[in-house]
Amino acid sequence: MPKPSAHSAAGQFIRDYGMIFVLLLLVALFSVLTLAEQHPTGAEAGRQVADRIVDAAGKSAGVIIVTRDTAEDRAFSAAIAARLADLGPTVHATVNGSPADARRAIVAVLARGESIDAIAANDATSRWTVYGQFDGLSDALVVPRSHTWPNFLKMSNVLGVANQTAIYAIIAIGMTMVIITAGIDLSVGSLVALSSVAGALVIRDLGGGTEAGAGMMLAGLFGGIALCALAGAFSGAMVTAFRIPAFIVTLAMMLMASGLAFRLSKGASIPQLPESFFWIGGGVTLGLPNPVWLMIVLYVLAHLLMTRMTFGRYVYAIGGNAEAARLSGVPVKRVLLAVYTISGALAGLGGIVLASQLQAGDPKFGLMYELEVIAAVVVGGTSLLGGSGKILGTLIGAFIIAVIKNGMNLTNVDPFNQKIVLGAVLLGAVLIDTLKRRRA
Amino acid sequence: MTGAAAAIEAPLLQMRGIDKSFPGVHALRGIDLSLAAGEVLALLGENGAGKSTLIKVLGGAHRPDGGSILINGTPVDIDSPADALRAGIGIIYQEFNLVPDLGAWENIFLGRERSVAGFIRRGEERRRARELFDRIGVRVPVDAPCGSLPVAHQQIVEIAKALSQEARVLVMDEPSAAITPTEVEHLFNIIRDLRTQGIGIIYISHRLDEIFEIADRVTVLRDGEHVGTAPIAGLTRQRMIEMMVGRRIENEFPKHHHPIGEARLAVRGLARGEAVRDVSFEVRRGEVLGLTGLVGAGRTETARLVFGADRRDAGTITLDGMPLDIRNPRDAIRHGICLLTEDRKSQGLVLGLSVRENFGLPNLPEFSAAGVVHRGRERDAFDRFVDSLRIKIPHREQAAGNLSGGNQQKVVLAKWLQRNAEVVIFDEPTRGIDVGAKYEIYLLLNELARAGKAVIMISSELPEVLGMSDRILVMHEGRITGTIEDVPAASQQDLMTLAVG
Questions:
Q1: Is A319 found in the same domain as A189?
Q2: What's the average model confidence in pLDDT over A248-268?
Q3: Which residues contact B67 (CB under 8 A, 6 or more apart)?
Q4: Which residues of chain A from 329 to 368 reach within 8 Å of chain B, CB to CB?
Q5: Based on the domain organization, do A67 and A136 belong to the same domain?
Q6: What CATH code is carried by the domain that includes residue A309?
Q7: Residue A176 confidence (pLDDT)
Q8: Residues of B at the A interface (Cβ-Cβ below 8 Å)?
Q9: Tell me, what DSSP letter sits at residue B402?
Q10: What is the pLDDT of residues A111-162, one digit of tens each?
Q11: In angstroms, how far is the first alpha carbon of chain A from the final one?
Q12: Are the beta carbons of A202 and A216 closer than 8 angstroms?
């Protein structure tokens, strides 16, 4: 019985998802390049400072807490106060403000004749010069321990990258399917704009704008997506029924959808959206931004669709050899129609998420998204010739581009140079694909 | 080999100890080959024996790992196709290297244009092209785009191109595969003529009849090794086959006769434009119906109409007395009709998909529930056919494009057998398939007939048609011009008479 050996299974993985090593390499590179001293603040750092005060000055110490007036610093000072209350030391004063506030507080505490054994501060407030004006106070400063950690790998940065990539990555699912059928969809950028405008219009004009309820918001959401799915289906019909090249059909759709978006919105942004609409693109669930959840769910579904389901097999077969697929009984036209419809619908979804994040529908949204998305698909190893490619490869491709952009921002690479680098990356990805093919 | 005397005695072309390995395959193991001026050498071997690799080494497409090539006794270095041309070696591959939109003269001089200050001397190129065609003895229109020329003419253009480059050695890779018997006769006259001009010709073909007709000597390769070289006069058909397959073949066409039953597939008044005109026939239970004729006679077109691959203008198709509504291949497949296309690479298989995935393509509804493919069921079903059809594959995730023609044909057959097809139409089932695999395909034809299927075999190879059919239909210009009921009594001449109208 023929069976693929373990060796060839590993080889297959590298052939399919070899790009993941490029991604890991980039992550390692930017981690090294952005290594920096990190000065923590916030609740966790606060508890640590409280413990160190007790260690240094004992359970009966007199303490004042000095932080700035920011949310993070307030969490920091609240955590210190709560912890100290448990452990014993007395907090004589808590400052959430400026050096002048700190000075007034210190003067007041000293005037009351209370001792200041420790000043709980963070990196920023410990640098204030106010303490030097009082004898021995500079030595009483207790700050959270600093440590070295790459700026790139800070949780806030990682989540930010994932969040910014999500919309591109979601649209790239449809694009991957289209490109595997040896087609292309240039209209997705315009469909993002059209969807955001259509969705916002439904909510503003039918739902009452900022007062709109959940029902109307859903109507706007699905309205935008449905309109774009329809546009995709139209492109698909042109491609299948009249055999017009997909490049031309979707180029025309790109113009028409953009024009329609400007017409519907009269060229202006539509910001009359309810606050709660922000939840879709800006909310956080279980620690992850909602668009990232959406991306994960859609990728899992698309991966299963393309690897486990009849539909996926048909998509690959059509891209590999449409005539052989037809003569094998594959419903070629139906599958192509579905693929362009999916691409349109996902672009529409991307437009709604973007409208939610930016709290507006706008005909200028989505500009050049098609190129960004095609780049992600190609970098992810899908061949423009059709017949081969992997959904998860596209996810990796989208992240490679996002990581390079983010890493260059963090290392202060000139934006003009960034474009040059991204162009070279795209070329390099296609070069690798071509060389791989030649060897096979 | 520097003396002038040695050079005069040396053959036109010598290949000595040519060795070539690819990752995992030792494709050529010390191959020797020699070709005299004015000689036709047939290069024989099954697919995968190394013929193509050897030719590519000669043509500069592959670099050999070892061995040498001598022209008139002088060693030459052939590192690129340009080197081969310079050494006087012209190769006409099975797939022609012609730009379809350019005329014959433009193709002949492509890359070597005669020009003055960058302007092409069109008049001279045309005149020279006509001279070349005169030399070959065929009037090919020099201005028509090559893509619009019949295949036989395109072949002439390729020959003219080689001659224009002063080729002394001409290699023809399966030149007869795509042209009609009359055109093959023409080609042979051209080859004989070139032979008298002192050109050495290496002729590759699977058709042994042709070898006997045209070749002076035969060199046989098997598994990358040189099995032997012998003058044609001392060889028999049987002996050549045995040299190629390395074992004795008792009977080239292992025909089994089964009791013929009632009509199963019946076609009435089938028509599409000029290609198929009022074609009616039936196929009976247990019968292999041969369908032959010249290329372009409408055989493939008829099959495509029955299968729904093209839309028919008129005609009814019934199976076991039930009229079928066939508008596309999906309808035909649903009714149990399948077509094994002539061109497996462009129509039969998705080369980039694995053999298992190709096998599953028409069978996914059976292997899936709610659109989810049950890959275990698919694998098990495929494995059964790998065993029963003796498909030779390293593993089932092998890309279909990397298989030999015989194994590709078996994979295509497996996918239709899984559908439990009742009507199996083979279009040139053994084209490009080596002798050993041909034999197995013939056994499968027998097996299908025995199982009561209606089997149609379209073929241009008359020995095959005569050897494997229970009944033969001959087509000419879209019509059926004759039916041969008593196959054992018929001759190739009988078929040809009907085929030319």
A1: yes
A2: 96
A3: B15, B16, B17, B18, B19, B30, B31
A4: 329-331
A5: yes
A6: 1.10.3470
A7: 97
A8: 307, 309, 328-330, 333-334, 339, 341, 346-353, 357-358, 360-362, 364-365, 368, 371-373, 375, 383, 386, 393-397, 415
A9: G
A10: 888 888 888 888 888 888 888 888 778 788 888 888 888 989 988 899 999 9
A11: 25
A12: yes
Q: Are A149 and A39 in contact (CB under 8 A)?
A: no
Q: Is B396's CB within 8 Å of A325's CB?
A: no
Same domain, A241 and A139: no
- Interface residue A154 vs chain B (CB under 8 A): no
Give the total number of structural domains in chain A: 2
Condensed to tens digits (0 to 9), the pLDDT of residues A300-318 reads 999 999 998 999 999 999 9
Same-domain status, A160 and A64: no
Q: Which whole number is the average pLDDT over B6-34? A: 83
Q: Which residue has better confidence, B139 or B170?
A: B170
* Residue A137 and residue A266 in one domain: no
CB contact under 8 A, A308 and B329: no
Structure tokens at B414: 């497996």
Nearest C-alpha in B relative to A318: B350
Least confident of A129-138, A271-280, A343-352, B366-375: A129-138
Best A8, A323, A327 residue to mutate vs chain B (most B CBs within 10 Å)? A327
Task: Give yes or no for residue B305 having a pLDDT over 50.
Answer: yes
A324 touches chain B (CB under 8 A): yes
d(CA A394, CA B136): 56
Length of chain B: 501
The ipTM of this complex is 0.75
Chain Cα centroid distance, residue B293: 16
Instruction: For residue B383, give the chain A residue with the closest CA.
Output: A1
**CATH code for the domain of A68:** 3.40.50.2300
Q: What angle do CA B342, B348, B351 make, to 5 degrees?
A: 125
Which residue type, as a one-letter code, is found at position B303? A
- Best of A301, A328, A330 to disrupt the B interface (most B CBs within 10 Å) is A328
Residue A51, domain extent: 43-145
Q: Which residues of chain B does A325 touch, with a Cβ-Cβ cutoff of 8 Å?
A: 350, 361
Q: Closest to A329 (Cβ–Cβ): which among B329, B357, B358? A: B329
Report how many Cβ contacts below 8 Å link chain A to chain B.
95
Between B309, B329, B364, which is nearest A310 by CB? B364
Residues A226 and A264 in one domain: yes
Q: For residue A93, is it within any domain?
A: yes
Residues A341 and A235 in one domain: yes
B353 closest CA partner among B390, B403, B389: B403
Which amino acid does the sequence have at A140?
A
Can you list the domains of chain B with their CATH numbers?
Answer: 1-88+168-250 (3.40.50.300), 91-165 (no CATH), 263-499 (3.40.50.300)
Domain assignment present for residue A304? The answer is yes
Mark whether A288 and A318 lie in a shared domain.
yes
**A239: which 2 tokens?**
């491609």
Residue A294 lies in a domain: yes
